[in-house]
Amino acid sequence: MSILFIGTASGAGKTTVTAMYCRHLRRKGVRVAPYKAVNLSLNSYVTQEGKEIGMGQAFQAWASGLKPSGDMNPVLLKPSGNGRIQTVLCGTPAGDVTEKKSMDAPLASAVAYEAYDRLRSKYDVVVCEGSGSPVELNLMDRDIANIGLMRNRRVPAILVGDIERGGVFAALYGTWLLLPDDVRPLVKGFLINRFRGDASLLDGGVRTIEDITGMKHLGTIPYRSLKFPEEDSLSDSDGRLSGDNAEEAFMSNIDALLDAALEAGVDFQAIERLH
Amino acid sequence: MPVASMDNITKKVKEEIDRGWIGPDIECPYHPCHFIGQDCTFCFCPFYPCNDLGLGDNIAGRLGKPIWQCTYCLLIHRPEVGRHVMSEIKRLGIQDPKDPRMRDLFNDVKERFYRKGRALMVLGATSDAGKSVTVAAICRILHKRGYLVAPFKSQNMSLNSKVTPIGSEIAMIQTIQAKAAGLKNPDHHMNPILLKPKGDTRSQVMVEGKPFGDYDVPEYYDNFVPGPGIEAVKRNIEFLKQRYDFVVMEGAGSPAEINIYDRDIANMGAAVVADADCILVVNVEWGGSFAYAVGTVKLIPERDRGRIKGIILNNVLGNPSNMEPGAEELERILGIPVIGIVPHADVDLPSEDSEAFRGMSSRGSGGVRISVVKVPRIANFTDLDPLYMEDATVSFVTRPEELEGSDAIIIPGTKNTIDDLLWMRENGLDKAICSFKGKIPILGICGGYQIMGRLLKDPQGIEGKAPQTIEGLGMFDMVTEWDEYKKKVIQDQGCLLETGEPVTGYEIHMGLSEVNEAPLFRIDRFKDSETEGAFRKDDMLFGTYLHGVFDKPAFRKFFLSFVKKGGKPVKMAEPKDYDDHIEENIEKLALVFEKALDIDMLMSIAEGRS
């Protein structure tokens, strides 16, 4: 079983929501693993086996009660300046991508989906995180982590919108509209993230989005100022995570967020039924 | 203008006629008193009083006699009008301003030159989409093409207000946009509704620059918006359209908040009232910009959707041409042209929003460390903006231990002096600041100045939650009292007494102070002058009610001259006038937009041809 959290934008809160949901399943005793096909980040974590993955997946692994592993983030892209991007496949450096030499997309997607399959065979639920917005019109035909994963593995998805900047209804509706016809029906529901105030004020808007898209509103997650471990202080000059208390600091935060989401009535049971 | 001076006006106009056409009078000390490029031939209008209700109106004067007031009419100052009127006067051989042929000339001029303006609206897909800077850039682009342009934002929520020449309060950002439009005097028509959060769930609502009442969110939408709110928007848009070629309107947040769509007078509600065509700005920095654009357009009800005539993809950090295939696809999907892919503009302009400020712990990385007490109800924190140009690090402190290592301390303005003083007392910041007295310079601005005094009396509970008298920091022999619910709102100009150099600013405060200290400034009023502020040189204590006190270089330089490192004054570069800095940045911003936008398309949208 698996579920994918896609976001309306970078920073919509996918990483946190994915970690929170991993935590929720872990609390229930489900064997759960996180997965993000492609991560574009300078902040990486080195696993005990010496594999390099995005730091977000390390957090999510901890939330799942697991040790981070290379399969959790099979494609890591590390910008190294001057338009060069270092490609890390399943935790191992695999050469640079430049303006002239683009990524071997078929190879990257094959690696990504094989890792996904391995996680699927080992765990009860794989909780996947998308990458950026799934509907960047200039990039979406090359997408691996959002549309690609949905299309190739038929993973049901939940769309996460950030209300803090405003325009959340537009972002949810616009994202849904721009998805290709073959994967749109896989997006079953949506979450509104980082809400402050009285959630009933949103009712009319939420109802409209449900009516015109058929996506179900699965909850509104309250704003919490999350104190994540300072990325810089945990990194050495390579940008690799080397701190000791990161796990502890992160866990207390994610537990608090999960409790707040439960209290705010986020419908976790409905999410579970979508796997 | 008193009625009795009508003879005087006639005399002045006679002098103007004798002098002939002069164009812009750049030697006049007040130039430009209305807008950059104005014609000054008729400092006094030869048609006064024209009694044309599209240009001015009657106000009640002394003894109840109506007086014709046309302060905001710019017609005679348009370069083409000033020149034409004078040449006609000469051609007709008119010498006496009371010549009956002047009325015919007025009618002819109005017919020939007067056109009611059009409104153009800039909407944003989100907050921080770049609406404010886009409005500023468009104002400058149109101004440079010779148009008279006014910015407009129907409703603004901001703690950063500024005071207009007649003592109205408007949001700071509209004053910056007015500057971009080449206007000298931003006025309350440009931001008729200003919401000032009071720190709880209520906001003070200002209408046309004056306090109107306090509202919470449901009251605001249920009682204010459908009545006085929409009326204020209508009245002021109409006012500006009658006087300017273009009104460039700024929306608020997203126009597609469908849960409040019908009560939203800041976005499409205002566009409908103004009959404005709209441009949608999307910030591409966070990704998802195409989705935001499509979703915003499609969620706006069909009856209003057609007003959106162009899209700007803003704040592109990489190569803008990478966005082109996406932009073409977006045009195809929506049938709306993308009129510009605008790269990230590296400019330093004051930020309207307190959101960005809220999370900030310091700014700059210069050698001098200026600690600003970040009181919970901090207001007018744009006072600090000029400090960011200096070789300084401005740190925002909320705990006593953070003051360690400060080279100077500033207690800024606050929306509630008493509550913020109590907050300082609770966390020990009051004592901590006093321990620095005499060692480093300490400045209080407005509420911060009141806090530095000896006593704060609020016998009726106007400022605080209950009637009380509390002790201040005792740095100045000064007693502040909130006697009645009255607010002082005024623009000031004068000089720093120590050096005689010019200082400008504005005051917005409730509570008046009795001060027994050497003053800091001389403020020049209409006929006389008065002193302002408090200054204890030996203890390096400074206090003033003047917001914007750092804008002119004089006081900034003076205050920083008290900063010492290892016992020696710190050498700092010659400070720059903050106004010049703003002007440079507006120009830089406008150039970025001008290069990226399809100006023909922009003009056709602005002119309603699109």
Structure commentary:
The complex is a heterodimer of chains A (275) and B (610). With 275 residues, chain A is α/β, with parallel strands linked by helices. Helix content of chain A is 35%, strand content 23%. Chain A has a single domain (2-36, 105-274), classed as P-loop containing nucleotide triphosphate hydrolases (Rossmann fold). Chain A is built from eight helices and 13 strands. In chain A, the strands form three sheets. Chain A has a six-stranded parallel sheet, sandwiched between helices. In chain A, a hairpin with a 2-residue loop joins strand 7 and strand 8 (92-97). The radius of gyration of chain A is 18 Å and the shape is globular. Chain A starts with a strand and ends with a helix. Chain B is an alpha/beta fold and 610 residues long. Chain B folds into three domains: 3-113, no CATH class; 118-190 and 229-350 and 586-606, Rossmann fold, CATH 3.40.50.300; 368-569, Rossmann fold, CATH 3.40.50.880. Chain B is built from 17 helices and 31 strands. In chain B, a hairpin with a 5-residue loop joins strand 1 (57-60) and strand 2 (66-69). The longest helix of chain B has 27 residues, at 217-243. Chain B starts with 5 loop residues before the first helix and ends with a helix. The mean pLDDT of chain B is 93. Chains A and B meet through helix 5 and helix 6 of A and helix 8 and helix 10 of B.
Describe the structure in brief:
Chain A is an alpha/beta fold and 275 residues long.
Strand order of the largest sheet of chain B: 15-17-16-18-19-29-28
Total number of strands of chain A: 13
In whole angstroms, the N-to-C terminal distance of chain A is: 5 Å
Structure summary, number of beta strands of chain B: 31
Overall pLDDT confidence of chain B? 93
Query: Which value, in Å, is the CA radius of gyration of chain A?
Result: 18 Å
In this structure, how is the largest beta sheet of chain B organized? 7 strands, mixed
> What overall geometry of chain B do the principal axes of the alpha carbons give?
globular
By CATH, the architecture of chain A is named 3-Layer(aba) Sandwich
CATH classification class of the largest domain in chain B: Alpha Beta
| Count of the domains of chain B | 3
Q: How many alpha or pi helices of chain A? A: 8
Q: Give the CA-CA distance, first to last residue of chain B.
A: 44 Å
Shape of chain A: globular
